[in-house]
Amino acid sequence: MSTIVITLNGERREVPGPGSLAGLLGHLGLDPRLVVVELNREIVRRPRLDDTTLADGDSVELVHFVGGG
Length: 69
What we know:
This protein is mostly beta strands. The chain has a single domain (2-64), classed as Beta-grasp domain (Ubiquitin-like (UB roll), Roll). Helix content is 12%, strand content 46%. The protein has one helix at residues 21-28, and strands spanning 2-8, 11-17, 19-20, 35-39, 42-44, 53-54, 59-64. The strands form two sheets. Strands 2-1-7-4-5 form a five-stranded mixed beta sheet, with helices on one face. A two-stranded antiparallel sheet has the order 3-6. The N and C termini lie far apart (42 Å). The model has no long low-confidence stretch (mean pLDDT 93).
């Protein structure tokens, strides 16, 4: 498998590619139910994570939900 270079939360990063946003979350060990994903300044809804592919140069922002009390 090859790699692609993306910007992830403001930092340049090499990740396995080509792949989907769901694959990226799996690679990062993140539960898609607990993350909001923005690809190139557009929020990607959870049902579209498997079908949305990443390309070299894409910008991804991830927001994690953390519980506590």
